[in-house]
Structure formats: structure tokens, C-alpha cells
Amino acid sequence: MAFMEWKDSYSVNVVKFDVQHKKLFALINDLHTAMSTGKGKDIIGGVLSELINYTKKHFTEEEEAMRFFVYPELLSQNREHKKFTDKIIKFQEQYERGEKSISIDLMFFLTDWLKNHIMISDKKYSAFFKGKNV
User: Tell me, what CATH number does 63's domain have?
Assistant: First the structure.
């Protein structure tokens, strides 16, 4: 059983963004599985690389849609996305310096992001985009 299971309650009702959010679930589950078997340090570099690529693609696409449809909370989303990106870059720098305990910190950070950003901030745009037939 996965550490973080996708449920319909996580859906923002925009298929493209749900698919991208599911990628984040997969990364969290991969990291958790590796940590559970003592191999967290073996995959952390790959997870961080994927997270950096994920943030570039996902945040760009989300923000482009928000700009196009004039989403009223775009600036708030931009700020949250920047904080996430900055934090992932810091984790990457820690990893490159050889710091040992970042996998646990990264796991807490990512699960908190799911609970607080996707379930609160992103959920706010669900009805907005639905009203725009997205």
C-alpha cells in the first residue's frame, strides 16, 4: 500500500493538473518506499531532479491558465509556488553538500505541501476553472 494514496478528494477537477499532482504523489511514495528500506539516500538525488522538473512544468502551466482566465488569486499562487521552488532548490543544495538527513525533511515538506497547498490553495481554483469550462 502506498504511503500517500490519491483520492478523488484531492482532485481539482482539471484533468491536466490532477495528472500532474498525481506525479507528486508518486515521487512522495517512491521516496517513502526507499526510506522504509534504508535506501532513501540512494534515490534522493533523482527525486530532487524530478521535483525541479515537475515544478517548472506544473507551476508554469498552472500559472499560465490562471493568467489566461484572470484568476483573482494568481499572485497568492505565484508566491506559494516560489516558496516551494526555493525550498526544493535548498534541498538540492543540501544534497550536493552531502548533508545526510534531508530525505526525512523533504518527506515532511512534500506531505505538508499536499495537505496545505493542493487541498487548500489549489482547491480554490477548482470551481473557478469549472465556471470557465476548463
Answer: 1.20.120.50
Tell me the per-residue pLDDT of 38-70, one tens digit each, with 9 for 90 and over: 888 888 889 999 999 999 999 999 999 999 999
CA neighbours closer than 13 Å in the CB half-sphere of residue 21: 25
Number of compact structural domains in the chain: 1
Instruction: Identify whether the C-beta of residue 52 lies closer than 8 Å to the C-beta of residue 88.
Output: yes
Q: Which domain holds residue 24?
A: 16-131
Q: Give burial (CB, 10 Å; 0-12/13-18/19+) of 127.
A: exposed
Q: Nearest 5 degrees, angle CA 4-CA 122-CA 91?
A: 60
